[in-house]
Amino acid sequence: MQERINNLRLQLDALGVDAVYLTSQTSHRYFTKFDNGDGSLLITKQSAYAFEDFRYIEIAEKLLSSSYTVVEPKGKRSIWLEDILKKEEIKVLGFEDYTLSVSSYEALKSDITAKLKPIGNTIVKMREIKDEWEIEQISKAQEITDQAFSHILGILSTDITENDVAAELEYFMRKNGAEDKSFETISISGPKTSLPHGVPENVKLQKGFLTMDFGATVNGYHSDMTRTVCIGKPDEEMKKLYNTVLKAQLEALAYLKEGVNTKDADNVAREIIYKDYKGYFGHSLGHSVGLEIHEHPALSPNCDRILVSGNIVTVEPGIYIPQKYGTRIEDLVVIRKNGITNLTKSPKELIII
């Protein structure tokens, strides 16, 4: 926690602020490793305060007292904040304009005398590079996700529904150490697999492709993987489509390392897919993952960034033929100096149920 606080302090002068007031749940967790959607933090050049209400004060004092002065406001929080700002002689206060609502901003502005200044994507940028503790949490989350995939393979059949698959994956992950799912689980079969983000329904699995996109969270950090299997024997066109996606993913994985441009990585996979399936890969190759399921940078034609060690990104090419079927294969990888560490261990050859 202290290292993250200090890293933010080093940026205060460049931001033109005397302190930063953090109100988003994600920032609270990033700077405390403690999840409280109603908590807020004030970080000055010399001090750090955690505002926690009665429901969380006991555990907050236990977890945060070594790095923060823990405050339980009695009444309106901004009034307590104003007292501290005056005591600390804070003239310019940075705020999270990416997440603070207009109404909350107006309420804050009316209660404090310090000038409010937006800090833009400062915190988002800090979170882009994961430290080894963060990588460990995401690795644990992905390990649970891999285990869930192994588990689900043993119960797949046309006698169960798409909802059954989603529920079973989520139950297994929670039972085996996840604090929650990463996002709404996708488990869709047959023609619905042409929908990249199709919604599972209470309908029995159809023969053909079955796409499962799911993940777990551990200590707030997400995992994300997709596997497509086939229920019944695939025809030659289905095999070709699947193997094209697999080749695109393997080539992209081999290309990734520190120093690679994000849009170039996307193009490696896109060129392979577009040889025979131009126009059927409609989303980007991948996105970063951390305390949020979609972070920056993205492996996208629209993102011109250079990858650095500590970025964690998904690699998930897909082909989607409308009203017919689709396939996606997704791994979660850590960018390293000379390549990647692939956190996803599940097999990728086409599994036939």
Helix percent reads 25-40%
Mass-distribution shape:
elongated
Oligomer: single chain
For this structure, what is the CATH class of the largest domain? Alpha Beta
Main beta sheet strand tally, sense and closure:
6 strands, mixed
Q: Approximately what portion of the residues adopt beta-strand conformation?
A: 15-25%
| Topology order in helix (H) and strand (E) letters | HHEHEEHEHEHEHHHEEEEEEHHEEEEEEE
In the sheet with the most strands, the strands line up as 4-3-2-1-5-6
Low-confidence stretches: none
Name given to the CATH architecture of the largest domain? Alpha-Beta Complex
> Could you say what the CATH topology of the largest domain is called?
Creatine Amidinohydrolase
Structure class: alpha+beta
Number of helices, counting only DSSP H or I runs of 4 residues or more: 11
Distance between the termini: 47 Å
Question: How many β strands by DSSP?
Answer: 19
How many independent structural domains? 2
User: What is the CATH homologous superfamily assignment of the largest domain?
Assistant: Creatinase/methionine aminopeptidase superfamily
Rg over CA atoms, rounded to whole Å, is 23 Å
